[in-house]
Design brief:
This protein is of the alpha+beta class. The chain contains 13 helices and twelve strands. The protein has three domains: about 120 residues, inorganic pyrophosphatase (n-terminal core); about 110 residues, Diaminopimelate Epimerase, Chain A, domain 1, CATH 3.10.310.30; about 110 residues, OB fold (Dihydrolipoamide Acetyltransferase, E2P). The strands form two sheets. It has a five-stranded mixed sheet with strand order 1-2-3-5-4, sandwiched between helices. The radius of gyration is 23 Å and the shape is globular. The termini are far apart. The relative contact order is 0.08.
Length: about 375
Protein backbone atom coordinates (compact mmCIF):
# COMPACT_ATOMS: atom_id res chain seq x y z
CA UNK A 1 0.00 0.00 0.00
CA UNK A 2 2.91 2.36 0.74
CA UNK A 3 4.37 1.63 -2.68
CA UNK A 4 0.99 2.37 -4.24
CA UNK A 5 0.71 5.66 -2.35
CA UNK A 6 4.22 6.71 -3.37
CA UNK A 7 3.64 5.72 -7.00
CA UNK A 8 0.38 7.70 -7.08
CA UNK A 9 2.03 10.75 -5.54
CA UNK A 10 5.01 10.75 -7.93
CA UNK A 11 2.74 10.28 -10.96
CA UNK A 12 0.09 12.70 -9.70
CA UNK A 13 -2.64 10.06 -9.68
CA UNK A 14 -5.78 11.33 -7.86
CA UNK A 15 -6.51 9.65 -4.51
CA UNK A 16 -9.97 8.54 -5.69
CA UNK A 17 -8.33 6.32 -8.30
CA UNK A 18 -6.72 4.27 -5.51
CA UNK A 19 -10.07 3.34 -3.94
CA UNK A 20 -10.61 0.28 -6.22
CA UNK A 21 -7.42 -1.27 -4.80
CA UNK A 22 -8.81 -1.39 -1.25
CA UNK A 23 -10.18 -4.92 -1.73
CA UNK A 24 -6.63 -6.13 -2.43
CA UNK A 25 -5.35 -4.17 0.57
CA UNK A 26 -7.82 -5.92 2.88
CA UNK A 27 -6.92 -9.33 1.45
CA UNK A 28 -3.19 -8.60 1.90
CA UNK A 29 -3.49 -7.39 5.50
CA UNK A 30 -5.73 -10.29 6.53
CA UNK A 31 -3.77 -13.01 4.72
CA UNK A 32 -0.43 -11.84 6.10
CA UNK A 33 -1.83 -12.09 9.67
CA UNK A 34 -0.51 -8.64 10.57
CA UNK A 35 -1.97 -6.51 13.40
CA UNK A 36 -5.33 -4.93 12.56
CA UNK A 37 -4.50 -1.77 14.49
CA UNK A 38 -3.78 1.88 13.67
CA UNK A 39 -3.63 2.58 9.94
CA UNK A 40 -4.12 -1.11 9.14
CA UNK A 41 -7.43 -1.08 11.00
CA UNK A 42 -8.75 1.79 8.88
CA UNK A 43 -7.52 0.23 5.64
CA UNK A 44 -9.01 -3.15 6.56
CA UNK A 45 -12.35 -1.61 7.48
CA UNK A 46 -12.74 0.19 4.16
CA UNK A 47 -11.10 -2.67 2.25
CA UNK A 48 -13.69 -5.13 3.57
CA UNK A 49 -16.43 -2.69 2.59
CA UNK A 50 -15.04 -2.68 -0.93
CA UNK A 51 -14.71 -6.48 -0.94
CA UNK A 52 -18.32 -6.85 0.16
CA UNK A 53 -19.76 -4.38 -2.36
CA UNK A 54 -17.51 -4.04 -5.42
CA UNK A 55 -14.82 -6.75 -5.48
CA UNK A 56 -12.64 -6.99 -8.56
CA UNK A 57 -13.54 -9.73 -11.03
CA UNK A 58 -10.83 -12.13 -9.87
CA UNK A 59 -11.81 -11.90 -6.21
CA UNK A 60 -15.46 -12.19 -7.16
CA UNK A 61 -14.60 -15.50 -8.82
CA UNK A 62 -13.01 -16.79 -5.60
CA UNK A 63 -15.99 -15.56 -3.58
CA UNK A 64 -18.35 -17.60 -5.78
CA UNK A 65 -16.13 -20.68 -5.61
CA UNK A 66 -15.97 -20.45 -1.80
CA UNK A 67 -19.79 -20.16 -1.67
CA UNK A 68 -19.70 -16.78 0.03
CA UNK A 69 -21.82 -14.90 -2.51
CA UNK A 70 -24.24 -12.62 -0.71
CA UNK A 71 -22.52 -13.08 2.64
CA UNK A 72 -20.57 -10.40 4.48
CA UNK A 73 -16.84 -11.06 4.49
CA UNK A 74 -14.83 -10.65 7.71
CA UNK A 75 -11.08 -10.84 8.29
CA UNK A 76 -11.54 -14.51 9.29
CA UNK A 77 -13.34 -15.24 6.02
CA UNK A 78 -10.45 -13.75 4.06
CA UNK A 79 -7.94 -15.77 6.10
CA UNK A 80 -9.76 -19.07 5.59
CA UNK A 81 -11.56 -18.64 2.25
CA UNK A 82 -9.60 -16.27 0.01
CA UNK A 83 -6.04 -16.31 1.34
CA UNK A 84 -5.48 -20.09 1.11
CA UNK A 85 -6.68 -20.18 -2.48
CA UNK A 86 -4.43 -17.32 -3.58
CA UNK A 87 -1.46 -18.81 -1.71
CA UNK A 88 -2.12 -22.29 -3.12
CA UNK A 89 -1.11 -21.12 -6.59
CA UNK A 90 2.41 -20.31 -5.39
CA UNK A 91 2.64 -23.41 -3.22
CA UNK A 92 1.63 -25.85 -5.96
CA UNK A 93 2.34 -24.13 -9.31
CA UNK A 94 3.35 -20.47 -9.57
CA UNK A 95 2.35 -17.26 -7.80
CA UNK A 96 1.93 -15.66 -11.22
CA UNK A 97 -1.28 -17.67 -11.66
CA UNK A 98 -2.83 -15.81 -8.70
CA UNK A 99 -1.57 -12.47 -10.05
CA UNK A 100 -3.18 -13.21 -13.43
CA UNK A 101 -6.48 -13.88 -11.67
CA UNK A 102 -6.35 -10.69 -9.61
CA UNK A 103 -5.58 -8.38 -12.55
CA UNK A 104 -7.88 -9.88 -15.19
CA UNK A 105 -10.89 -7.89 -16.39
CA UNK A 106 -12.42 -10.76 -18.34
CA UNK A 107 -15.26 -12.67 -16.65
CA UNK A 108 -14.71 -15.92 -18.55
CA UNK A 109 -10.96 -15.80 -17.87
CA UNK A 110 -11.61 -15.10 -14.18
CA UNK A 111 -13.88 -18.13 -13.89
CA UNK A 112 -11.38 -20.38 -15.65
CA UNK A 113 -8.43 -19.18 -13.55
CA UNK A 114 -10.52 -19.22 -10.36
CA UNK A 115 -11.44 -22.87 -10.96
CA UNK A 116 -7.79 -23.70 -11.62
CA UNK A 117 -6.67 -22.00 -8.40
CA UNK A 118 -9.39 -23.81 -6.47
CA UNK A 119 -7.97 -27.08 -7.84
CA UNK A 120 -4.50 -26.02 -6.62
CA UNK A 121 -6.02 -25.44 -3.19
CA UNK A 122 -7.63 -28.89 -3.13
CA UNK A 123 -4.28 -30.42 -4.10
CA UNK A 124 -2.58 -28.36 -1.38
CA UNK A 125 -5.09 -29.61 1.21
CA UNK A 126 -4.52 -33.24 0.20
CA UNK A 127 -0.74 -32.88 0.38
CA UNK A 128 -0.96 -31.00 3.67
CA UNK A 129 -3.19 -33.69 5.18
CA UNK A 130 -0.96 -36.56 4.02
CA UNK A 131 2.27 -34.97 5.28
CA UNK A 132 0.67 -34.05 8.60
CA UNK A 133 -0.46 -37.65 9.04
CA UNK A 134 3.05 -38.95 8.24
CA UNK A 135 4.62 -36.45 10.63
CA UNK A 136 2.29 -37.38 13.48
CA UNK A 137 3.08 -41.05 12.90
CA UNK A 138 6.82 -40.29 13.04
CA UNK A 139 6.43 -38.58 16.41
CA UNK A 140 4.11 -41.23 17.87
CA UNK A 141 6.49 -44.00 16.77
CA UNK A 142 9.54 -42.46 18.44
CA UNK A 143 9.34 -42.34 22.29
CA UNK A 144 12.30 -39.95 22.48
CA UNK A 145 10.67 -37.54 20.04
CA UNK A 146 7.26 -37.89 21.71
CA UNK A 147 8.74 -36.77 25.02
CA UNK A 148 10.87 -33.94 23.63
CA UNK A 149 10.22 -30.26 24.23
CA UNK A 150 10.60 -29.49 20.53
CA UNK A 151 9.83 -31.13 17.20
CA UNK A 152 12.31 -31.30 14.31
CA UNK A 153 11.32 -33.60 11.44
CA UNK A 154 13.00 -34.17 8.07
CA UNK A 155 11.74 -36.01 5.03
CA UNK A 156 13.38 -35.27 1.66
CA UNK A 157 10.19 -35.97 -0.33
CA UNK A 158 7.82 -33.67 1.52
CA UNK A 159 6.42 -30.82 -0.56
CA UNK A 160 8.23 -27.57 0.20
CA UNK A 161 5.11 -25.48 -0.40
CA UNK A 162 3.16 -26.84 2.58
CA UNK A 163 5.72 -27.53 5.31
CA UNK A 164 4.94 -24.25 7.08
CA UNK A 165 1.29 -25.27 7.28
CA UNK A 166 2.31 -28.72 8.56
CA UNK A 167 4.46 -27.13 11.29
CA UNK A 168 1.43 -25.15 12.47
CA UNK A 169 -0.76 -28.26 12.37
CA UNK A 170 1.67 -30.25 14.51
CA UNK A 171 1.60 -27.54 17.18
CA UNK A 172 -2.14 -28.15 17.48
CA UNK A 173 -1.32 -31.69 18.68
CA UNK A 174 2.16 -31.32 20.17
CA UNK A 175 2.19 -27.84 21.65
CA UNK A 176 5.87 -26.93 21.31
CA UNK A 177 8.35 -25.20 18.95
CA UNK A 178 8.35 -27.08 15.66
CA UNK A 179 10.65 -27.26 12.62
CA UNK A 180 9.69 -29.17 9.46
CA UNK A 181 12.42 -29.82 6.88
CA UNK A 182 12.49 -31.20 3.36
CA UNK A 183 15.05 -31.33 0.54
CA UNK A 184 15.40 -28.52 -1.98
CA UNK A 185 18.28 -27.89 -4.39
CA UNK A 186 20.50 -30.38 -2.58
CA UNK A 187 20.01 -28.84 0.87
CA UNK A 188 17.60 -29.33 3.76
CA UNK A 189 15.23 -26.40 3.90
CA UNK A 190 12.26 -25.78 6.10
CA UNK A 191 9.82 -23.73 8.12
CA UNK A 192 9.63 -23.25 11.87
CA UNK A 193 6.74 -22.19 14.09
CA UNK A 194 6.63 -21.36 17.78
CA UNK A 195 4.21 -21.22 20.70
CA UNK A 196 3.22 -17.93 22.40
CA UNK A 197 5.95 -16.47 24.58
CA UNK A 198 8.87 -18.50 23.22
CA UNK A 199 11.46 -16.73 21.03
CA UNK A 200 11.93 -19.13 18.12
CA UNK A 201 14.32 -16.83 16.27
CA UNK A 202 16.71 -16.70 19.22
CA UNK A 203 16.62 -20.51 19.56
CA UNK A 204 17.46 -21.01 15.87
CA UNK A 205 20.18 -18.35 16.10
CA UNK A 206 21.82 -20.46 18.84
CA UNK A 207 22.18 -23.18 16.17
CA UNK A 208 23.58 -20.73 13.60
CA UNK A 209 26.88 -22.54 13.04
CA UNK A 210 24.90 -25.52 11.68
CA UNK A 211 22.91 -23.43 9.21
CA UNK A 212 23.55 -22.05 5.76
CA UNK A 213 21.06 -19.24 6.32
CA UNK A 214 17.86 -18.42 8.18
CA UNK A 215 15.45 -15.57 8.74
CA UNK A 216 12.22 -14.76 10.47
CA UNK A 217 10.94 -13.44 13.77
CA UNK A 218 9.92 -14.57 17.24
CA UNK A 219 7.14 -16.91 16.13
CA UNK A 220 8.02 -18.04 12.59
CA UNK A 221 11.18 -18.61 10.59
CA UNK A 222 12.62 -20.21 7.49
CA UNK A 223 15.99 -21.97 7.41
CA UNK A 224 18.40 -23.87 5.17
CA UNK A 225 21.18 -26.25 6.18
CA UNK A 226 23.30 -29.04 4.75
CA UNK A 227 21.56 -32.40 4.83
CA UNK A 228 24.38 -33.91 6.87
CA UNK A 229 23.72 -31.33 9.60
CA UNK A 230 20.05 -32.22 10.14
CA UNK A 231 20.70 -34.69 12.97
CA UNK A 232 23.06 -32.29 14.75
CA UNK A 233 20.55 -29.46 14.35
CA UNK A 234 17.76 -31.62 15.74
CA UNK A 235 19.86 -32.37 18.83
CA UNK A 236 21.09 -28.82 19.34
CA UNK A 237 17.67 -27.25 18.84
CA UNK A 238 16.17 -29.61 21.43
CA UNK A 239 18.95 -28.73 23.88
CA UNK A 240 18.36 -25.00 23.41
CA UNK A 241 14.58 -25.28 23.72
CA UNK A 242 14.81 -27.60 26.73
CA UNK A 243 17.09 -25.11 28.46
CA UNK A 244 15.12 -21.95 27.71
CA UNK A 245 11.43 -22.79 27.45
CA UNK A 246 9.28 -22.74 30.58
CA UNK A 247 6.73 -25.36 31.62
CA UNK A 248 4.07 -22.67 31.38
CA UNK A 249 4.92 -21.95 27.74
CA UNK A 250 4.26 -25.59 26.89
CA UNK A 251 0.65 -25.42 28.13
CA UNK A 252 -1.89 -24.05 25.61
CA UNK A 253 -3.98 -21.21 27.00
CA UNK A 254 -7.20 -19.51 26.02
CA UNK A 255 -7.34 -15.87 27.07
CA UNK A 256 -10.82 -15.08 28.42
CA UNK A 257 -12.27 -11.58 28.17
CA UNK A 258 -15.42 -12.07 30.26
CA UNK A 259 -17.72 -14.66 31.82
CA UNK A 260 -21.30 -14.49 30.57
CA UNK A 261 -24.43 -16.63 30.47
CA UNK A 262 -26.26 -17.77 27.37
CA UNK A 263 -29.20 -15.52 28.21
CA UNK A 264 -26.86 -12.52 27.81
CA UNK A 265 -26.36 -13.37 24.13
CA UNK A 266 -28.90 -11.52 21.99
CA UNK A 267 -29.07 -9.65 18.70
CA UNK A 268 -28.53 -6.40 20.59
CA UNK A 269 -25.48 -7.88 22.33
CA UNK A 270 -24.03 -8.94 18.98
CA UNK A 271 -24.64 -5.51 17.42
CA UNK A 272 -22.57 -4.01 20.24
CA UNK A 273 -19.76 -6.52 19.56
CA UNK A 274 -19.74 -5.64 15.86
CA UNK A 275 -18.90 -2.05 16.70
CA UNK A 276 -15.38 -3.26 17.57
CA UNK A 277 -14.79 -4.81 14.11
CA UNK A 278 -12.77 -5.54 12.08
CA UNK A 279 -11.31 -8.21 14.33
CA UNK A 280 -7.87 -9.67 13.74
CA UNK A 281 -4.37 -9.79 15.28
CA UNK A 282 -4.01 -6.96 17.78
CA UNK A 283 -7.80 -6.62 17.98
CA UNK A 284 -9.08 -10.16 18.37
CA UNK A 285 -12.77 -10.97 18.75
CA UNK A 286 -13.69 -11.14 22.45
CA UNK A 287 -13.56 -14.63 23.95
CA UNK A 288 -16.16 -15.49 26.58
CA UNK A 289 -16.60 -18.34 29.02
CA UNK A 290 -19.89 -19.91 30.11
CA UNK A 291 -20.05 -22.54 32.84
CA UNK A 292 -22.32 -25.50 33.63
CA UNK A 293 -23.23 -26.09 30.01
CA UNK A 294 -24.91 -29.29 28.76
CA UNK A 295 -25.38 -31.01 25.43
CA UNK A 296 -29.02 -30.62 24.38
CA UNK A 297 -28.95 -34.11 22.88
CA UNK A 298 -28.78 -33.19 19.20
CA UNK A 299 -25.06 -32.49 18.86
CA UNK A 300 -23.15 -34.44 16.22
CA UNK A 301 -19.78 -34.95 14.57
CA UNK A 302 -19.38 -33.19 11.20
CA UNK A 303 -16.70 -32.48 8.60
CA UNK A 304 -15.27 -34.39 5.63
CA UNK A 305 -12.91 -36.22 8.00
CA UNK A 306 -15.32 -36.22 10.97
CA UNK A 307 -13.12 -33.77 12.85
CA UNK A 308 -15.57 -31.07 14.00
CA UNK A 309 -18.55 -30.85 16.36
CA UNK A 310 -21.89 -29.21 15.53
CA UNK A 311 -23.38 -28.51 18.92
CA UNK A 312 -26.72 -27.59 20.47
CA UNK A 313 -26.07 -26.41 24.02
CA UNK A 314 -28.08 -25.29 27.04
CA UNK A 315 -27.35 -23.89 30.48
CA UNK A 316 -29.10 -24.71 33.75
CA UNK A 317 -30.62 -21.24 33.77
CA UNK A 318 -32.47 -21.85 30.47
CA UNK A 319 -32.63 -25.64 29.89
CA UNK A 320 -35.18 -25.33 27.09
CA UNK A 321 -33.41 -22.65 25.06
CA UNK A 322 -30.57 -24.29 23.13
CA UNK A 323 -27.95 -22.24 21.34
CA UNK A 324 -26.03 -23.46 18.29
CA UNK A 325 -22.25 -23.81 18.32
CA UNK A 326 -19.41 -25.14 16.19
CA UNK A 327 -16.20 -26.62 17.65
CA UNK A 328 -13.55 -27.03 14.94
CA UNK A 329 -11.10 -29.90 15.40
CA UNK A 330 -12.71 -31.06 18.66
CA UNK A 331 -14.60 -34.18 17.57
CA UNK A 332 -12.48 -36.22 20.01
CA UNK A 333 -14.45 -34.61 22.86
CA UNK A 334 -17.81 -35.81 21.59
CA UNK A 335 -18.19 -38.79 23.93
CA UNK A 336 -17.16 -36.70 26.95
CA UNK A 337 -19.90 -34.16 26.51
CA UNK A 338 -22.53 -36.85 25.96
CA UNK A 339 -22.01 -38.24 29.47
CA UNK A 340 -24.69 -35.80 30.68
CA UNK A 341 -22.01 -34.10 32.77
CA UNK A 342 -21.81 -30.35 32.78
CA UNK A 343 -18.88 -28.64 31.10
CA UNK A 344 -17.44 -25.15 30.65
CA UNK A 345 -16.81 -23.65 27.21
CA UNK A 346 -14.79 -20.73 25.92
CA UNK A 347 -16.01 -19.19 22.68
CA UNK A 348 -16.52 -16.17 20.48
CA UNK A 349 -19.91 -15.15 19.12
CA UNK A 350 -20.45 -14.96 15.38
CA UNK A 351 -23.12 -14.94 12.69
CA UNK A 352 -23.96 -18.14 10.85
CA UNK A 353 -25.26 -17.64 7.31
CA UNK A 354 -27.13 -20.74 6.18
CA UNK A 355 -29.61 -21.06 3.31
CA UNK A 356 -30.36 -17.37 3.33
CA UNK A 357 -30.96 -17.18 7.07
CA UNK A 358 -28.70 -15.50 9.61
CA UNK A 359 -28.47 -16.73 13.21
CA UNK A 360 -26.03 -16.30 16.08
CA UNK A 361 -23.60 -19.12 16.68
CA UNK A 362 -20.85 -19.83 19.21
CA UNK A 363 -17.40 -20.61 17.83
CA UNK A 364 -16.05 -22.86 20.59
CA UNK A 365 -12.35 -22.52 21.40
CA UNK A 366 -12.19 -25.12 24.17
CA UNK A 367 -14.36 -27.51 26.19
CA UNK A 368 -13.60 -28.46 29.78
CA UNK A 369 -15.71 -31.23 31.28
CA UNK A 370 -16.45 -30.80 34.98
CA UNK A 371 -15.32 -33.74 37.08
CA UNK A 372 -18.03 -33.38 39.72
Amino acid sequence: IKFLQAYAKINEIPFDELIPYLDLVAVSIASDIVPVTGENRVLTYFGLKRLNTEPRIGLSSIIKISRMTGKEFSVNDVVFKIGPRINAAGRIESGSKAVDLLVTRDDAMAKEMGDRIDDYNKTRRDIDRDITREALQMIAGDPKLSNSRSTVLYNPVWHKGVIGIVASRLIETYYRPTVILTESNGSATGSARSVPGFDLYKAIDACGDLLENFGGHMYAAGLTLKKENVSAFQQRFEEVVNRTITDEQLIPKVEIDAEIEFRDISDKFFRELKRFEPFGPGNMAPVFVSRNVYDYGTSRVVGSSAEHLKLELVQNQDPNKPISAIAFGQAHKFQEIRWKKSFDISYSVEENNFRGGVTLQLNVKDIKVNET
